[in-house]
Amino acid sequence: MKLRPLTGTLTALVTPFRRQQVAFDDLQSLVDFQIKSGIDGLVPAGSTGEATTLSHEEHMDVVRCVIAASRGRVPVVAGTGSNCTKEALDLTRAAHEAGADAMLVVAPYYNKPTPEGLYRHFAQVAEATDRPIILYSIPSRCGVEIGVPVVARLRAKYPNVRYIKESGGSVDRVDQLKQALGRDIVVLSGDDSLTLPFMSVGAEGVISVASNFVPREVVRLTHLALEGDFPAAARVHRSLYPLFKGLFIETNPGPVKAALALAGRIGSGELRLPLCEPAAAPMATLRGLVARHRR
Questions:
Q1: Using CA atoms, how far apart are residues 177 and 96, in angstroms rounded to an integer?
Q2: pLDDT for 6-24, tens place per residue?
Q3: What's the CA gap between 35 and 31, in Å, rounded?
Q4: Residue 235 CB contacts under 8 Å (≥ 6 apart), including other chains
Q5: 10 Å Cβ neighbour count for 268?
Q6: Which of 91, 136, 235, 268 sits in a 20 to 30 Å window from 100, CA-based?
Q7: Contact between residue 211 and residue 9 where contact means Cβ atoms under 8 Å apart
Q8: What positions carry a catalytic annotation?
Q9: What is the DSSP string of the chain?
């Protein structure tokens, strides 16, 4: 099946740590595992990649590592968002120069900008690169939603603003985006458990946490849905649903890093404070899920 660019399953990559330093060898191995498993794209330095605890130098080193390790085999979408427009511009320009194929730009968090402030923020980022911008709306973490009128206004002016990662938890919101913009906007789910419902109303894929651990299975789900075989996609969804929920049993990316470490995909499930490892009871749940899905 020939996919449109940046559709299907893109993995929101974890950033492995060892003794609190970025474990670049583990990151390279994870990239190879993802690509051999048929993933459609890779997204380093996003929420799952713990971008908020990386220095700007580390942030770009992670992006460069993933670009180098992928060797052009799949698109690399660099996380370049910030709650400071200047920082988002600096990261976007640096990622462009490093060779990223597209940028994932989260809504400014903590500041709670108005719709006009959101528009101006994303407009400046869109003007800093000619590569695709994926807007990232996640109100639970940012305190604001990128409203449909803001998306439509950006899409009308900037040809490279043609994607949105939707993490608001609402099928109705996806429907609103598609009613307003149709095929002019590509919607990617930001929640694994909502990927199939979102795709049933027109979303084109997912930026996935679970695909760090089970890339082949999540790819199969999205490709079946893109082909219109929703009964088969639903069977895959149901088989994965306990894993989808289990990987969010505590704050992301703690559970998925623990699962990857338990499966031997990375050397350690370390996080950086204020995030910390899952508690004993969630870890017991994760061990069971890993045992069920481990290959």
A1: 27
A2: 999 999 999 999 999 999 9
A3: 6
A4: none
A5: 17
A6: 268
A7: yes
A8: 136, 165
A9: -PPPTT-EEEEE----EETTEE-HHHHHHHHHHHHHTT-SEEE-SSTTTTGGGS-HHHHHHHHHHHHHHHTTSS-BEEE---SSHHHHHHHHHHHHHHT-SEEEEEPPPSS---HHHHHHHHHHHHHT-SS-EEEEE-HHHHS----HHHHHHHHHH-TTEEEEEE-S--HHHHHHHHHHHGGGSEEEES-GGGHHHHHHTT--EEEESGGGT-HHHHHHHHHHHHTT-HHHHHHHHHHHHHHHHHTTSSSTTHHHHHHHHHTTSSS-----TT-----HHHHHHHHHHHHHH--
- Predicted structure pTM score: 0.95
What is the band of 141 on the pLDDT scale with cuts at 50, 70, 90? confident
- Token pair belonging to 153: 């206004």
What are the tokens at 267?
Answer: 């050397």
Chain position carrying tokens 């099946």: 1
